Amino acid sequence: MVAIHLFHNFEFMPDLSRPASLVSINNDLAASLRAKRQVLRQVSIVAIIIAGLSMDAACSPMKRGAGTGVAKADPVTTGLPHAATSHWTADNGNGTYSNPLFYGEFEDPDVIRVGDDYYLAGTTMHMMPSVEILHSKDLVNWELAGYCTNKLDLGPAYRLADGNIYGNGIWAPCLRFDKGMFYIFCNVNRAGLQVFRSKSIDGPWERNQLPNRHDLSVLFDDDGKVYIISGGGTPYPIEELSPDLRSFATNAPRHQLVGKMGEGHHLYKIKGKYVDISCQPGGAVDEYVAVADTLDGPWSITKMVTGESMGETGATPAKANADDRGLWIHQGGMCDTPSGEWWSIIMSDHGSAGRMVNLVPITWDNGFPVIGLPGNLRKAPNTWIKPNTGYTQEPKPAYVWDDNFDSGKLNPHWQWNHVPDDTKWSLTEQPGVLRLHSLPAASLWTARNSICQRPPGPESIMTVELDTTGLVAGDTAGLGLISTPYAGLSVVKIADGTALQMFQGSGDGRRGAAAAPATAPIIALSNPPGHLWLRMHCNFDTDRVVFSWSTDGKVFTPAGNPFTPTFQLTTFQGIRPALFNFNTSGQAGGYADFDNYVVEEPRARGIEREIPLGKTITLTSGADGSYLAADTQNNVLVNRAADSAVANTPNVRFQVLDLGQGRVALTAANGRFVSATEDGVTLKDLAGRTPSNAESFQWINLMRGDTMFMALTNHRYLTTTPNEPGPVTATATGPSPARKKGECFKWKTVD
Fold first, then answer.
1. CB neighbours of residue 79 within 10 Å
2. How far is residue 346's CA from residue 330's CA, in Å, rounded to a whole number?
């Protein structure tokens, strides 16, 4: 296995090296990014090749500037640029995309189109900067546009002083554009509804505050009036805002939506009809859509999507049973393209990695926008044709997390845990490193100036170099995971030396309940050298995190037992890798220097994303190991038990023919084509004709090596009946969460 270490050249990024410049990070950052967007697409890349990387294996040391070069195609994976093969990229490079859009947390998405540009906003809770905004030209490849605010400081708890705002930060943004102005509306629990406005998506953003409104959405109506819908239970009030959006129009007529909907509203007016979409609270919940001629109704309501898990389990995938109902897609916005297509970007839970978003097509059915494709409505494809936006670009990852701190500017994907103290961190005191001065804290849970990122899934390895020669007694510095429970690997300065230790603990319980008692830390090494490497390896299929350390950057030694992360409703977030330095003596202490933060994504593009075009393969069911086989006597496709005689014959071999755009035809050993019709799945002699829709299948790759075949005749999937050899049908509506219902297959090339 080979991993590529990529550094973006942030030549055009604003100066984040001094506290004064941090105050304007959003505006400067966004303006620079937008102004240089075309240049950044051709950004230079530093590549460090790390071979043989495994959970606890050795790796090459990280050396700054260990080879430079420009982005070039990766010959191993379909000619895509290195950046798109070493970091999760939804764009498959063949005209299709695969969900999730980002294999990392992006909560409560809201999307809009402004001309030929698309913008996406998401929840950031207690993290700073707040309210992340992305930009795209094709709805698949995204890049950071900026944030609404660098510091949302509404009191001591926002600074981790006299409390915290875990679970009570800024969330569920509503992104809108009207008459040349961008607006973002976000509620903050216990504080109020924040209204941001800017003439440019780059900012600067002006802010005012209104009374709280839960999971709101705003509509700028055709007559110039502005309405806001909110609430989590029927009837849902629809109130009018003043034209300047600084108050509620108290004398305006009151409207309401009556009916079973939910929370997470997204209110639109489309072709004269009012449309609201929302979901019931929870993980395994559906999305609803209501349509009315007037805001007073009556509202007609139907399900927009039903029981769609996208193949994600409710439990950890490695532990899921066959009847796992999964975690369903719910809560998201929608937009159209200039070509007239409609799309939704919608959220689903992914365990301890957090909530992620999927791009799914919308079909209008009897006046309702419902997710899915004709013949398979209210279900969503994991892989599909990219939206027709009229724009084509090279596949590009939205997130490259690495930071060598050489440029004097932070990678803009870093976020602080609560509002930071800008006098206690620096990129200039010791150029080329991030210096964190310690502040008093009892634990990582309460440690101010912890700087965080989101861990990419389904597997990621974070490594950082740490210099601890500046620590003083009471300092604790290292690499950890902020959540509850939390964990980390740190160097602790004590009176007679230092110790490298792994620790675990719990933050506050939900709604302020007492934390669980902390466990005693495990000493991994007494008096470690002042310069060492710390690493964490996260596997979200098993919910397993291994911490390890190295004194030379080559050989890594595990510290303690693997840690089990969880998704919880205290922070309402997945886990957050963090660099930290705090002092447990009750006062400020010394400093720690961090360098060469590297994030490896070993499964960003592997067999899960490969299509064996032109090869001969066998296909076995993930449910029972049975083989797909050609019944040449009856010319139908069947499945046969793994121990049957047919398993060793040419009848289980199929050639994969490339039809373009990720679509394939499958030919049996007798030359006949697999064909999906209303009567079943047959083997058809085309007599030299081009395959029709009946013989065309969208190759659907799921993570963990599972593959499905979508029949273009009805947008459903080939499936078998587990443990019952017999005819194959094209009737499955999607992947079952545990992928054990007969619709998922494993492929293997035949020598």
1. 12
2. 6
Cβ neighbours of residue 287 closer than 8 Å, sequence gap 6 or more? 277, 278, 279, 303, 304, 305, 329, 330, 331, 332, 346, 371
Q: What is the DSSP string of 99-123?
A: S-SSSS--EEEEEEEETTEEEEEEE
Q: Tokens 């859509």 belong to which residue? A: 289
The enclosing H or E element of 20 equals helix 19-22
Q: For the domain covering 95-385, report its CATH number.
A: 2.115.10.20
- Kindly list the domain boundaries of the chain, sorted by start residue: 95-385, 416-600, 611-749
Class of domain 416-600: mainly beta
Helix (H) or strand (E) holding 35: helix 25-35
Report the distance separating Cα 269 and Cα 272, nearest Å. Answer: 6
Question: Full-prediction pTM beyond 0.85?
Answer: yes
Instruction: List, edge to edge, every strand of the sheet that includes 45-51.
Output: 2-8, 45-51, 68-69
Over residues 377-389, the pLDDT tens digits come to 999 999 999 999 9
DSSP-assigned letters across all residues of 229-253: E--SSSSEEEEEEPTTSSSB-TTSP
One fold for both 416-600 and 611-749?
A: no
Phi-psi region of 19 (alpha: psi -120 to 50; beta: other; left: phi over 0): alpha
Q: How far apart are CA 711 and CA 677, in angstroms?
A: 9
Helix, strand, coil shares of the chain as percentages rounded to 5? 10, 45, 50
Q: Which residue stretches of the chain have pLDDT < 50?
A: 1-77
pLDDT digits (tens, 9 = 90+) for 297-316: 999 999 999 999 999 999 89
The token duo for 417 is 């845990």
Residue at 407: amino acid letter: S
Q: For residue 190, what pLDDT is reported? A: 86
Domain with residues 611-749, CATH architecture? Trefoil (2.80)
